[in-house]
Structure formats: structure tokens, C-alpha cells
Design brief:
The complex is a heterodimer. By secondary structure, chain A is an all-beta fold. In chain A, about 0% of the residues lie in helices and about 55% in strands. In chain A, strands 2, 4, 5, 9, 10 and 11 form a 6-stranded mixed beta sheet that branches. A 5-stranded antiparallel beta sheet of chain A has the order 1-3-8-7-6, with no helix packed on it. The radius of gyration of chain A is 13 Å and the shape is globular. The termini of chain A are far apart. Chain B is mainly β. Chain B is built from no helices and 11 strands. In chain B, the strands form 2 sheets. In chain B, strands 2, 4, 5, 6, 9, 10 and 11 form a 7-stranded mixed beta sheet that branches. In chain B, a hairpin with a 5-residue loop joins strand 5 and strand 6. The chains are: A mainly beta, B mainly beta. The interface between A and B is medium-sized, with 21 and 19 residues.
């Protein structure tokens, strides 16, 4: 079956670094996406990885290991506005996104 | 660029009525649009994949006669919830893949439509 696992909730301190992990099992693989979703809003795109390695984009970085079926999203210099749910999604062989349930990130001052 | 709009943003309707939700790609053409439903504190659930000029492909468990999808042009897809019931109350989100986006397979999301059925 197809499955995406990510922690339900994480807490971090403003200014710190947090890493949100995601493991996936999908029928085929066409890339791993990370989205940010604030409460009551639609997801917004953060990153896309299809090759192994780290992709850095400002304060956010995303890592992929295809052999391990593993990805993480790294957020640096956390700000209060980063409080949101972070959704991991794997694109399968039919180019459909298989979504994780999301990780609710709580930032404390 | 790559903006997707949805209308309405929110709607409240009586049980038994039908509600139409529009999804538009404003600055790009999309051969494929996706409709999702998200219940509180749950992940997005793909309802159907809509391809311009052809019938939508529905996910298992989604009633095609209840959730009518029309993708009449490369910039517009509509979802009609027919004979809505309170259990249909949810956040409906569409996304669109730009033509020629095969390199990154990115989907751009609309802002979502919150449906409340009384």
C-alpha cells in the first residue's frame, strides 16, 4: 500500500532550528513535495525534491534519500509566522500526490 | 505567476441544495486540475482528477453522481456538490498543473472553499 508518515506535532523555540521528518512508501516515485498550510488556508508550495540530496531555499531546506524512502524539511531561524502544518507528499507513478497527515509545528517565544 | 482562484471562498447552504465551486487558473493553462477535500485536522484527500475535454477520474469511494466535475476549458474546472448534506461540510481545494510542468510536477493550489451544509 501507499503510506506517508510524519510526526503529528512538534514544538520549537523562536530563532531555533527544527527538522520535520517524512518517510514514504508509494507505487513508483516522481518526487517529494513539502507544503506549508496555515489553519483555514490552502497549502502553499515549499519545495520539490526528485534527486537525492539537500535543496536549500532561504531559511528552508529539504532533503531526500530515495533509497531510504526518507525526506526532511529543515527550518532555520524560526519565526512565529512559521507556526503552521507542514505537509509531506509523494508523487506516485500516476503523477498523483499521496499526502501525509501533516505535522503541526508550534513555535514558542 | 501561477495563480489559482476559487469561488466562492465560503458558502453556507441548506441540506438538499446543490453548490457549484469554480476553480480557475488565472495566468496559465492547465490541462489537469485536481479536486481535494479536507476535513478538520486531516490530510487532503484527492477526490478526482479533471482533464480538459474529458471525463473526470474519481477516486475510490467518491460518488461521481454526487460530485459533478466539469473541465470545460484550459483555465476553468467546476465542482458541483449535488443534494448536499451536513456530512459534505468540508474544505474543498482545487489545484492545477500548468501545461509543460513535467519538469517539476508542481501543483498550484487555489485558496479553498469552505462549505457548510445546514
Amino acid at each position: 500500500g501507499q503510506n506517508i508518515d510524519q510526526p503529528t506535532e512538534m514544538t520549537a523555540t523562536e530563532g531555533a532550528i527544527v527538522q520535520i521528518n517524512c518517510t514514504y512508501q508509494t507505487s513508483g516515485f516522481n518526487g517529494l513535495f513539502w507544503y506549508q498550510q496555515h489553519a483555514g488556508e490552502a497549502p502553499t508550495f515549499l519545495s520539490y525534491n526528485v534527486l537525492d540530496g539537500l535543496e536549500e531555499k532561504g531559511r528552508f531546506s529539504s532533503f531526500l534519500s530515495r533509497s531510504k524512502g526518507y525526506s526532511y524539511l529543515l527550518l532555520k531561524e524560526l519565526q512565529m509566522k512559521d507556526s503552521a502544518s507542514y505537509l509531506c507528499a509523494s508523487m506516485d507513478s500516476n503523477y498523483q500526490l499521496i499526502w501525509g497527515a501533516g505535522t503541526k509545528l508550534i513555535i514558542k517565544p | 505567476g501561477a495563480v489559482v482562484s476559487q469561488h466562492p471562498s465560503w458558502v453556507i447552504c441548506k441540506s438538499g441544495t446543490s453548490v457549484k465551486i469554480e476553480c480557475r487558473s488565472l495566468d496559465f493553462q492547465a490541462t489537469t486540475m485536481f479536486w481535494y477535500r479536507q476535513f478538520p485536522k486531516q490530510s487532503l484527500m484527492l477526490m478526482a482528477t479533471s482533464n480538459e475535454g474529458s471525463k473526470a477520474t474519481y477516486e475510490q469511494g467518491v460518488e461521481k453522481d454526487k460530485f459533478l466535475i466539469n473541465h470545460a476549458s484550459l483555465t476553468l474546472s467546476t465542482l458541483t456538490v449535488t443534494s448536499a448534506h451536513p456530512e459534505d461540510s468540508s474544505f474543498y481545494i482545487c489545484s492545477a498543473s500548468p501545461m509543460g510542468s513535467e519538469l517539476n510536477n508542481e501543483q498550484f493550489f487555489g485558496p479553498g472553499t469552505r462549505l457548510t451544509v445546514l
